[in-house]
Design goal:
mainly alpha; 64% helix; 225 residues; two-stranded antiparallel ribbon
């Protein structure tokens, strides 16, 4: 069997997943920079974009392509422990997230949602910079959420750093490039490997429309229906 036959490219990540991933990579440092330089108008605009992407990604985790769905990569503790125990022996290239990587993704998504959620209520109206939901909570609650929003950012940074270290470990030790598939959407895999099962494009359009409507509702202070 030739090498080309043994390791043919298979589809791994769809375009929505890749757009979300690289948008997060750009948005998080951009939001830190705007906050540090008191560019709060831009900080909130970028936060609105992040909200759209996060809501979309959550929806896509239920209605997207096979490798994008949470059900395809979330495994119980036993599967995660077994994965780590067998890591010394090497693994075949995964079509999707491995059991440990799946929970890493959920931790990052959860941390971004929590950070963003606190930011929606944070701020001081006397400073002129408040989240769109600031008026729904009292001053003391808003002050506490503002402090937590500033502090928790570094927990998010720690999770991102751990994620980067894991990617570098796979690249340098296991010789498994996890970055390239997130750019190209495909990766080499043993012959006969079943790749990503796509879904119709209209699902992405509907999920994006829902995310935009929800973000617009939040931006306007979540008025009652």
């Amino acid at each position: 069997m030739t090498e080309a036959t043994a390791a043919a490219p298979v589809k791994l990540w769809d375009l929505p997943v890749r757009i979300c991933h690289w948008s997060f990579v750009l948005l998080i440092p951009a939001m830190w920079w705007t906050a540090e330089n008191n560019e709060m108008g831009w900080h909130m605009r970028l936060g609105l974009i992040l909200l759209v992407l996060l809501v979309f990604r959550v929806l896509w985790g239920f209605f997207g392509s096979s490798t994008a769905r949470f059900a395809s990569f979330l495994r119980g503790p036993g599967a995660v422990i077994a994965y780590f125990r067998s890591s010394g022996g090497g693994h075949a290239p995964a079509i999707g997230h491995n059991p440990a990587g799946g929970w890493s993704v959920m931790a990052l998504l959860g941390a971004m949602l929590l950070q963003l959620g606190m930011g929606l209520f944070a701020g001081d109206p006397f400073d002129g910079a408040t989240g769109p939901l600031n008026g729904l909570v009292g001053v003391m609650t808003a002050d506490s959420l503002t402090e937590w929003h500033e502090s928790f950012f570094w927990a998010l940074v720690a999770l991102i750093a751990l994620h980067v270290v894991a990617v570098l470990f796979y690249l340098t030790v296991k010789r498994d490039n996890l970055v390239r598939p997130m750019i190209t959407g495909s990766r080499p895999a043993p012959s006969g490997t079943v790749g990503m099962a796509p879904v119709p494009a209209w699902r992405a359009i509907v999920c994006l429309a829902i995310a935009l409507v929800f973000a617009g509702w939040i931006w306007n202070g979540a008025p009652p229906f």
